[in-house]
Amino acid sequence: MTYQVKNERIDGDRATITTEIEVLDYKKAVNDIITFHIESDSDVQETIDKIKACGKKPGLVIKPNTKAEEVFPYLKDLFMVLVMTVEPGFGGQSFMADMLPKVKEIREEANKVNPELLIEVDGGIGEATIKQAYDAGVDVCVAVVFKITVVKPFCSDSSGTLLV
User: Fold this and answer.
1) What does the pLDDT look like over 137-158, one tens digit per residue?
2) What is the structure's pLDDT at 142?
3) Is the separation of the CB atoms in 58 and 34 below 8 Å?
4) From CA 101, how far away is CA 4, in angstroms rounded?
5) Count of beta carbons in the 10 Å neighbourhood of residue 67
């Protein structure tokens, strides 16, 4: 089977969004999706609303020590939740499989209020971990070092298009 790479969306991750001007500047950005950390100093709902007002799709990022429930109040307004499967900011870490139950919790809650929500994981993704992520309900994997040639058919859509 041959796969085509489908690249329709560009995701931009921000650790913090601190000013209205910073959010409004995203109107000019090529990013389709703007994610920010729930742990940031930003007012979460206000930031989501501003991102949407710019015509962009909002996403929330949660670190390993953040409980899944913290994103539940915002799920109906989000395009995506990114669950960090390593501690952000330190390269070369191993995949934290103990984050996968968090993915399942978010998926269960999202199915009630926003079944189209994408769940993404970032950190330690490779040949041995991508299937674990998929089986837990992950839709998108960030894989900076992972070679696309080892991706299996479970990461494609029904047309055989590889979702990267």
Assistant:
1) 888 777 665 444 444 444 444 4
2) 75
3) yes
4) 31
5) 10
Reported as a pLDDT band with limits 50, 70 and 90, residue 110 is very high
Structure tokens at 58: 């909002």
Q: What span, in angstroms and rounded, lies between the C-alpha atoms of 43 and 27?
A: 19
Q: Taking the CA atoms of the chain, what radius of gyration do you get in angstroms? A: 16
Amino acid, single-letter form, for residue 34:
I
From residue 1, give the alpha-carbon distance in Å to each of 4, 29, 86, 147, 156. 10, 35, 32, 17, 11
Report the distance separating Cα 58 and Cα 42, nearest Å: 13
What token pair was written down for 115?
């079944």
pTM of the model as a whole: 0.74
What does the alpha-carbon distance between residue 64 and residue 88 come to, in Å, rounded to a whole number? Answer: 9
Q: Coil, strand, or helix at residue 105? A: helix
pLDDT at position 136 over 60: yes
Task: Please state the separation of Cα 66 from the chain's center in Å.
Answer: 15
d(CA 81, CA 107): 10
Q: CA 27, CA 159: separation in Å to the nearest integer?
A: 32
Residue 48's pLDDT band, with cuts at 50, 70 and 90, is very high
User: Do the Cβ atoms of 63 and 74 come closer than 8 Å?
Assistant: no
- What integer is the mean pLDDT of 2-19? 42
